[in-house]
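Why run this: before we spend reagent on co-expression, it is cheaper to look at a predicted model of the complex and decide which construct boundaries make sense. The entries below are exactly what would go into the expression plan.
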Amino acid sequence: MDDMLETGRDILAKQPFSRVMQAELVAWSKTETVLRVPLNDNTQQHIGMTHGGVICYAADNALTYAGAAALGSGVVTSELKINYIRPAIGSALIARAVALHGGRSQAVCRCDVYDLRGTDEVLCATALGTIARLPSKPETEQA
Amino acid sequence: MDDMLETGRDILAKQPFSRVMQAELVAWSKTETVLRVPLNDNTQQHIGMTHGGVICYAADNALTYAGAAALGSGVVTSELKINYIRPAIGSALIARAVALHGGRSQAVCRCDVYDLRGTDEVLCATALGTIARLPSKPETEQA
Amino acid sequence: MDDMLETGRDILAKQPFSRVMQAELVAWSKTETVLRVPLNDNTQQHIGMTHGGVICYAADNALTYAGAAALGSGVVTSELKINYIRPAIGSALIARAVALHGGRSQAVCRCDVYDLRGTDEVLCATALGTIARLPSKPETEQA
Amino acid sequence: MDDMLETGRDILAKQPFSRVMQAELVAWSKTETVLRVPLNDNTQQHIGMTHGGVICYAADNALTYAGAAALGSGVVTSELKINYIRPAIGSALIARAVALHGGRSQAVCRCDVYDLRGTDEVLCATALGTIARLPSKPETEQA
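The model came back. Tokens follow.
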């Protein structure tokens, strides 16, 4: 495993909510971010499909990693938009994100979220978001 | 407690992921939807703030309830956009959603998410989304 | 007319595309931005309703003014999301925007676009966007 | 020129606002939509860059065509989100859109907008939107 992926996994392991979600960083480089979130009884809504909040978590986190890869520093997600396309009913979500552009202060990133059904990946959502570089000095304000 | 709120709470109780998130439906009527999500060690990311996925869950779920109140039938969230405004570091998220318009096939809904700090509510995110009426006959497609 | 509104109108007058659109800045202050775009034969699409691009122009421009009022300096629109709610078939669009939050580097702004039908204003679209402060030194990059 | 492209151009020619914008439909098929919008003195804002409203017009229109190609019937744009990435300062906008998914009632479409600088296309914006099938019977409601 390369250093960047190892660093990314260390960060993920330090996120309590990502541990709750059992998320795994599968790949992380300048050109590719892949996050895997297993689906199980706990990730559903009331009619047996994956809850939108789970899909949104996967997209949010993958977008942030893609932005961090592009900006090369501490980042925070400014905003995102997600379209739910199909119900996720498989064994895991595979969120694949990439930075379309990394500027001085922010990156614009895209994420497709796939539903793993057996060995097939079916597109279940797509997201577009902005990741902002954190100011060098800490401040209380997020955006 | 009125019937509509009781119905809404029954639905929430049947959502396994909402039980994981310990979400509580505080109010639900044609004009007001309030969802409360407690914050704790499990809802954080790696630098001690609430994970964006938690905030997004709160917005997604409150938007869906607001859309269901407007459309009066089975619904599904088509899409949403969320802007994170400030870090959430308080004791709970209070998501307040309302339908701006309920049409024949979909509702456009807005949600402001507040961070409960002591007894103060501080705006930490705002979202805008589309809730679609489910077709009368079941189909595999979500959107 | 106060100085701020006058300044805002001067800027609008220097935007060739806003002159094409015949847009008028009706109000501009820290707390209120109102932009008026007249509707006529040239602003329609093929079935007699106002083209979405016209509505989006109104929202984009009003959001930018609201962000500039909050940030107090040169700004640029980073992104926006718009929901079209009803067809605009009246005599003008009235875009009302406000900053929900103005931070160090960006402002989150909301805009409701109304269709002026006689003397009634009917909500025809709603938008949510991010306005970024321009860096002090010019750079070629917009975002 | 094939029939579908010819039909698309006929529709565009019937849109007064698209005539104002001098937009040209370059390609239109199930898998590809390309819209070209020439840039000139009239399409600028006050500091010499293309107005965001022009870019948004291009994205909105290309998304709608991509959705119509996927849904095969009368459509209307429900909503879209656009990220402005770089200033457009070239001779034309080239908006390239595609449907990621076409369902029974709506299509989710993506659009990249390029700035034509000489013979180079530089990504200047990206958009994501939902295109809805119009109900078979006319109704006053757009969404």
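The helical segments of chain D are 3-13, 16-20, 52-71. The mean pLDDT of chain D is 93. Bring this page to Monday's planning discussion.
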